[in-house]
């Protein structure tokens, strides 16, 4: 039993998750039962990344309760009981509203993990992406209705370094469902729609994360990282040059 609380040094193990939200416009009948200003119903969630066959939700093939004890969602303060603690799957909160805001999500792991809670953030999205060509504009109601549900999801990997042996046993006994290499229904991330003319073609099926998307995203992030490093080096070189120039001017003034 004592060996179970020994960390396995030099080992890392991860679990893929997605977090985000789905939102739809309220029907006329639904709006009769909510505050007058509310326009949308939405669900914000933390799920396994792989899609469940035949499911009508994004991701969710695996039950994350084997390593997550609780997920806390901090909503906007205008909601009653804005901190919602979900102690068993599905780890999600559904509400209605009219505005977009940042949701703070805290992941609490099972005691066997010995891990501290992890905080992530998601900007709740209600309106379709780039329908009018203006990134921040809200499309007309009839256009948004044609677009169908709005999806905003982020893929991430929770990495556990030097896990305790008993927690490692839990993880290895519950391997995650692999991501499909390509979409099984033609819908993939990102979910943006280029223009209103393509709305009908985009509908049908639940968006999916795939290994190709994760690979492309990793490559994009690596490219962005290299660009940032190059800019930092350029700025550093310019700063060094200015410091030398200033040093020479000070010598001239003191000479």
From TrEMBL:
<keyword id="KW-0175">Coiled coil</keyword>
<dbReference type="GO" id="GO:0000812">
    <property type="term" value="C:Swr1 complex"/>
</dbReference>
<keyword id="KW-0539">Nucleus</keyword>
<comment type="similarity">
    <text>Belongs to the YAF9 family.</text>
</comment>
<comment type="function">
    <text>Component of the SWR1 complex which mediates the ATP-dependent exchange of histone H2A for an H2A variant leading to transcriptional regulation of selected genes by chromatin remodeling. Component of the NuA4 histone acetyltransferase complex which is involved in transcriptional activation of selected genes principally by acetylation of nucleosomal histones H4 and H2A. The NuA4 complex is also involved in DNA repair. Yaf9 may also be required for viability in conditions in which the structural integrity of the spindle is compromised.</text>
</comment>
<dbReference type="InterPro" id="IPR055129">
    <property type="entry name" value="YEATS_dom"/>
</dbReference>
<keyword id="KW-0963">Cytoplasm</keyword>
<keyword id="KW-0804">Transcription</keyword>
<keyword id="KW-0010">Activator</keyword>
<dbReference type="GO" id="GO:0006325">
    <property type="term" value="P:chromatin organization"/>
</dbReference>
<protein>
    <recommendedName>
        <fullName>Protein AF-9 homolog</fullName>
    </recommendedName>
</protein>
<keyword id="KW-0234">DNA repair</keyword>
<dbReference type="InterPro" id="IPR005033">
    <property type="entry name" value="YEATS"/>
</dbReference>
<comment type="subunit">
    <text>Component of the SWR1 chromatin-remodeling complex and of the NuA4 histone acetyltransferase complex.</text>
</comment>
<dbReference type="GO" id="GO:0005737">
    <property type="term" value="C:cytoplasm"/>
</dbReference>
<keyword id="KW-0156">Chromatin regulator</keyword>
<keyword id="KW-0805">Transcription regulation</keyword>
<feature type="coiled-coil region">
    <location>
        <begin position="214"/>
        <end position="252"/>
    </location>
</feature>
<dbReference type="GO" id="GO:0006355">
    <property type="term" value="P:regulation of DNA-templated transcription"/>
</dbReference>
<dbReference type="GO" id="GO:0006281">
    <property type="term" value="P:DNA repair"/>
</dbReference>
<dbReference type="InterPro" id="IPR038704">
    <property type="entry name" value="YEAST_sf"/>
</dbReference>
<dbReference type="Pfam" id="PF03366">
    <property type="entry name" value="YEATS"/>
</dbReference>
<keyword id="KW-0227">DNA damage</keyword>
<feature type="domain" description="YEATS">
    <location>
        <begin position="7"/>
        <end position="174"/>
    </location>
</feature>
């Amino acid at each position: 039993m004592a060996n179970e609380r020994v960390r396995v040094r030099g080992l890392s193990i991860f679990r893929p998750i997605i977090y985000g939200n789905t939102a739809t416009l309220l029907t006329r009948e639904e709006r009769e039962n909510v505050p007058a200003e509310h326009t949308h119903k939405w669900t914000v969630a933390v799920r396994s990344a792989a899609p469940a066959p035949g499911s009508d939700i994004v991701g969710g093939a695996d039950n994350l309760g084997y390593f997550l004890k609780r997920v806390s969602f901090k909503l906007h303060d205008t909601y009653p009981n804005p901190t919602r603690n979900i102690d068993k799957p599905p780890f999600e909160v559904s509400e209605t509203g009219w505005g977009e805001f940042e949701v703070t999500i805290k992941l609490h792991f099972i005691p066997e993990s010995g891990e501290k809670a992890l905080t992530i953030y998601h900007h709740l999205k209600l309106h379709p992406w780039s329908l009018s060509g203006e990134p921040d504009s809200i499309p007309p109601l009839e256009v948004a209705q044609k677009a169908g549900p709005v999806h905003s999801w982020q893929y991430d990997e929770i990495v556990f370094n030097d896990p305790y042996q008993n927690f490692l046993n839990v993880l290895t006994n519950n391997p995650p469902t692999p991501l499909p290499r390509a979409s099984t229904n033609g819908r993939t991330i990102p979910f943006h729609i280029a223009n209103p003319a393509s709305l009908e073609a985009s509908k049908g099926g639940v968006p999916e994360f795939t290994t190709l998307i994760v690979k492309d995203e990793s490559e994009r992030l690596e490219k962005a990282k290299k660009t940032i490093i190059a800019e930092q080096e350029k700025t550093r070189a310019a700063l060094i040059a200015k410091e030398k120039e200033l040093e020479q001017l000070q010598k001239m003034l003191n000479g």
